[in-house]
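Review form for a predicted model. The reviewer records the input and the model, then writes brief findings.
Reviewer: anonymous (R2)
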Amino acid sequence: MRYALVLSLLAAVAEAKKAPLSAVAVVRGTAEGSAVSGTVRFTQTGDGLEFVGKISGLPAGQHGFHIHEYGLCGDSGKDAGGHYNPHDAPHGHALKHGPKKAHAGDLGNIVAREDGSAVVSGTIAKLTLSGGKRWVAGRAVIVHEKADDFSQPLGNAGGRIGCGVIAVSP
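Model under review:
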């Protein structure tokens, strides 16, 4: 009986090691009474860091979507600091140009439909959840009030209306 239990536990540990590392950011509005809410799941893959999620309660239209330096959402999202930028790169679009030619956290824009919902997805090359030079676990996802126009230095996306900390999940 004990032998079977030990084998079962060893099999479970081996299976867990095969599973890709993942994290979730629970996004909430930065203002009191805000309807902004959603989740973004991050999964570490061989191609980089894949993300997928849904956010609701947004004003219809485009909104800048970025990973910011710190995993803090206080002070209307300002505590999250600036865009995550480990290479001191210019502002841009990391999904199109890579994390060395744009801030690694510059994920472009999401589009909220008339009902306020937006779907987000993509893969960020060369980012990881933990380890290495470009890790994002413990940092924050920010949804901005306006579209990112990709201008320098930060894209004119306005205030921060949604924030969620990227937390590793089992």
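Findings: Residues 30 and 74 are 8 Å apart (CA to CA).
Further findings: The helical segments are 2-18, 94-97.
Recommendation: see findings above.
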